[in-house]
Amino acid sequence: MAVYFQKREVVVPGQLLAEGRYRASFGTYDEGGKIFSSLVGLAELRGNTVKVVALEGAYIPKEGDLVIGTITLVAGNNWKVDIGGPYGASLHANNALRRPYSDDISEYMDMGDVIAAEVIAFDRGSGPFLGMKGRGLRVLQGGMVLDVSPAKIPRIIGRRGSMINMIKDHLNIQTMVGQNGRIWIRAPNTAVLRLAIKAFKTIEEQAHTSKLTDRISEMLAEEMSKIGSGVEDETDSEEDSIADTVSASETEDEKASEEVEPKPEKESKTESEATTDTEDESVDVVAEVENNEEEEVDEKQKEEVKEK
User: Which CATH superfamily is domain 144-221 in?
Assistant: First the structure.
């Protein structure tokens, strides 16, 4: 028994990888007890199984694959789904809905909807058949779909989901990774969405390197701290702006109240003063009457003297 490659070594088609009691797996073939690579990729040995993880290549469906697809056509009881690669997929209503269902299945899913589905059968003549009755399989609302190389999906997921779970924990995002090279991402804000895209693209570019999970984790922690501090600064500036607005509003209210408030009128005379003024006017009238009477008496006396 002999192995002729280092762990995660880049190999090419036809390259001898191992001989003896080893079992050929994905990306390899057995010929006369010897295992050769069938594509360009990273060679791996797990137990006595040899496989090659492709560095590039189109998506070839396999039963049990989770795929992210877009509905392109509604025909009778079937949806036609674009899952990328050379094969168009079909989804029958019986494999997605519970009976009874409407004759118009576009009421449930229509053209343009993005779905998460499972490959339940694959025939190279008619293409893969999908199902949506498994856990988490549904129409994906909101978010965006990122396209990466299908060959890099195993690295993005990581061993036992280590990479993708680490990204979810750091970014607090909703995501679903399809084996067909499509990743659905729903983030709380634009800054986190951009960081998620950056992380997935970095993994795609550096999939062949070691200690990638640690490097991605450090990058996300650093970038998230910057985003957090930026949010705090924005919050502080917003609070200051609100405080200034409130202060200016209060000042304007005070000015307005001063302008609207009427000037105090002169105090009206008290009742006692008014009564006194009335009495004085009455006395003056009486005095004038008496003076007039005295003048009339004097005139009469003068006339009588003249007659005598």
Answer: K Homology domain, type 1 (3.30.1370.10)
